[in-house]
Amino acid sequence: MPTDSVTPVAATGMYTTPPTRAPKQTMDGEMFMHLLVTQLQNQDPSSPMDTNQMISQSTQLAMMESIATMTTTSEENFSLQMRGVAAALVGQQVSYYGQDGALITGTASSVSYAGPVPQVIVDGKEIPLDLIAGINAATSGEPGSGGADDGAASSGGSGTSGADASGTSASGTSGGAA
């Protein structure tokens, strides 16, 4: 009678080795609470922990968690600021130092937020925002130069009302400034 070979079954359930837990490298609220509970469980009943000390430790835990939250919020704010600054560079003439140390000037055409530091695309080359050395003033004929032809900076229009420098309303039918 022929016998069939049996394929071994992978160990599952209670016969597997449980995964080992990597030790924590930082103190967080969970570890602090665990230490406090252990301290309370192992205290001498004839000499219990001072309530002032317990309140002090609880306050330290709350302060530690608040500082961790503030750090996270600060990092997020900094990231948003970098994104805003990078976006404002689009269309501007910027300068950066090349690998040979020479100052290179070009026009920022777009921004990539793929990495931790925004990448400004200058003449087709990705430049990290923190390597931008400066923003150059564009000539008066170029868009984005900040001249009188850029939108709200213009004072010669055909509007019928406006406000003078003191904030009072001025009406008129000519295009001049009040």
Q: Can you put this structure into words, describing what you see?
A:
The protein has helices at about 30-40, 50-90; strands spanning about 95, 105-110, 120, 125-130, 130-135, 160-165, 170. The protein is α+β, with helices and mostly antiparallel strands and about 180 residues long. The strands form 2 sheets. A 5-stranded antiparallel beta sheet has the order 4-3-2-1-5, with no helix packed on it. Strands 6-7 form a two-stranded antiparallel sheet. Strand 3 and strand 4 (about 125-130) form a beta hairpin. The protein is flat and about 80 Å long. Mean pLDDT is about 75; it is low at about 145-178.
Main features:
178 residues, alpha+beta, 5-stranded antiparallel sheet
Task: Lay out the secondary structure.
Blueprint: H1 29-41, H2 51-88, E1 93-97, E2 103-112, E3 119-122, E4 125-128, E5 132-136, E6 161-163, E7 169-171
Antiparallel strand pairs: 1-2, 1-5, 2-3, 3-4, 6-7
Helix pairs in contact: 1-2
Quick take:
By secondary structure, the chain is α+β, with helices and mostly antiparallel strands. Helices cover 29% and strands 19% of the residues. It has helices at residues 29-41, 51-88, and strands at residues 93-97, 103-112, 119-122, 125-128, 132-136, 161-163, 169-171.
